[in-house]
Specification:
single chain, mainly alpha, Fumarase C, Chain B, domain 1, Fumarase C, Chain A, domain 2, 2 domains
Length: 508
């Protein structure tokens, strides 16, 4: 089991991978513990001076003008959590929930929230026992915090709501009883701090970055397979050509494809052909894949910045300065996710075009629909149709969420980010693209089996083709392709495929 330290150091999205792989052990650094204690003391000293502090001794949102008696401060926090735990839909994955919790701890560790060390230790106790809140996917607009989903997370700390524990979904009080853990009594501001933050939006973004890195590699590999087995030119991927463009992603994609095709007899077999140019979906692979890669790099920068930011409200600086701001607003994350949505959709779009190119038949060598007996057999005709349906779906899902705001909280929260929806639809886009690429892998593999199997493939593509043969029945003719598509999809989405060909790829 991986151990992870909550501290004030800089974190990257890659540091969160263990949280998606299974249970972890979390500990708190001494510096973080010191920051948390100091911040709570500042808050308590301000309360002793009867200063009005939003959400601590006032109502919330459009009710912030209503003052709350000190005797009702705990009830205020509990009511806040109960009322805000109003999300709907299927639960977020356990990996995302672990990431949400860890992100919340990172914000608290910086010492601007005023929460107690007791709260932090209770959160750590729960995650170390792998008692994870059931957090519905939908209900957050990504502003004023991811209120609804974080409300469900907070509910568990007071012994309410539901959790996943030892593979089962249970009422929280049942799980806590089994684990011999007592629920928490919330102190001043703790309910508010638990729900004010971009942690759900950011956790979803981290998930899409971890998956997106694999997708970028899959796209380059698929492109190389299609270039080779459609008898397209390798020359257009030479370094000296792409050094004339100043886009790092373009250069990486070009180099990946060029290396994957090293020593390919199939490529060499048509060096002196009369063909002048290949379609854009082949010769412009570095330009399209590279643009997506550079957008990805930009999104990584934004999400990493959010990971290492304070996301809470109000912010406690010292005994004399407590201010309300908008650090719970996830606009940066939303825009990053929206940009990833259209960049990954383009990877699917260009892949579908390469699949289409095979369907027409190529140079009198590859028959239409990559089948032995066109007419009697339909070959990969409907696999292409499936890829087209997914590419079309992605075009709709690529509509930016961040520009589609609706005001909430009586108009107090009058422009929201919609970051969680931007992330959820991006997850679907990525799944769709992975399946489109899986179809391209299969079609290019079938073309190789049908026409070029006696020629040596590239150093990288030959390894991929050997793997494909284990998952695809190229010699059987017409058959249902669903199982093969899903099998290759699992190879791509798991990252398994890259272990054997990593020496032929530039990962970043």
């Amino acid at each position: 089991m991986t151990s992870i330290l909550v501290s004030t150091k800089k974190y990257s999205y890659n540091d969160f991978l263990p949280l998606f792989l299974g249970p972890v052990k979390i500990s708190l650094s001494k510096e973080s513990e010191k920051n948390i204690k100091k911040s709570q003391n500042f808050l308590l000293n301000n309360l002793k001076k009867n200063r009005s502090i939003y959400g601590v001794n006032t109502g919330f949102g459009n009710l912030s003008h209503i003052l709350i008696d000190s005797d009702d401060s705990e009830k205020l926090q509990i009511n806040l959590i109960r009322s805000h735990a109003s999300g709907i839909g299927e639960p977020l994955s356990l990996g995302i929930v672990r990431t949400v919790i860890f992100l919340k701890l990172l914000t608290f560790a910086k010492g601007y929230s005023g929460v107690s060390l007791e709260l932090i230790k209770k959160i750590i106790q729960l995650i170390n026992k792998d008692i994870l809140p059931v957090v519905p996917k939908r209900g957050s607009v990504g502003a004023s915090g991811d209120l609804a989903p974080l409300g469900h997370l907070a509910l568990v700390l007071i012994g309410e709501g539901e959790v996943f524990f030892k593979g089962k979904r249970l009422k929280t009080h049942q799980a806590l009883k089994k684990a011999k853990i007592k629920p928490l009594s919330l102190k001043a501001k703790e309910g508010l701090s638990l729900i004010n933050g971009t942690q759900v939006s950011t956790a979803i973004a981290i998930k899409t970055l971890l998956d997106g890195r694999n997708l970028l590699l899959s796209a380059d590999i698929a492109g190389a397979l299609s270039v080779e087995n459609s008898f397209s030119s390798r020359k257009v991927f030479q370094k000296k050509i792409h050094d004339l463009k100043q886009h790092p992603g373009q250069r990486i994609s070009a180099k990946n494809i060029y290396k994957l095709l090293s020593n390919s007899e199939i490529v060499q077999s048509h060096n002196n052909c009369e063909k002048i140019q290949d379609p854009y979906s082949f010769r412009c692979i570095p330009h399209v894949h590279g643009a997506s890669r550079d957008i990805f790099t930009s999104a990584v920068n934004i999400v990493n910045n959010e990971i290492n930011s304070v996301s809470d409200n109000p912010l406690i600086f010292d005994e004399n300065l407590i201010v309300s701001s908008g650090h719970f607003h996830a606009e940066h994350v939303a825009m990053a996710l929206d940009s990833l949505a259209f960049s990954f959709s383009e990877l699917g779009a260009i892949s579908e075009r390469r699949i289409h190119y095979f369907m027409k038949g190529i140079q009198g060598k590859i028959p239409p629909f990559v089948c032995k007996n066109p007419g009697i057999d339909s070959g990969y005709m409907i696999a292409h149709v499936t890829s087209t349906s997914l590419a079309s779906e992605n075009k709709t899902l690529s509509h930016p969420a961040c520009v589609d705001s609706l005001p909430t909280s009586g108009g107090q929260e009058d422009l929201v980010s919609m970051a969680p929806w931007a992330g959820l639809k991006l997850i679907q886009i990525q799944k769709n693209v992975n399946r489109i690429l899986a179809i391209e892998f299969i079609v290019a593999g079938a073309a190789n089996y049908l026409i070029s199997s006696k020629l040596k493939s590239g150093d990288g593509t030959s390894v991929v083709l050997e793997i494909l043969k284990k998952h695809c029945s190229f010699g059987k003719g017409d058959r249902s392709l669903t199982a093969e598509i899903e099998s290759v999809y699992n190879l791509l989405s798991s990252g398994y495929l890259y272990h054997d060909i990593s020496q032929h790829l530039i990962l970043e």
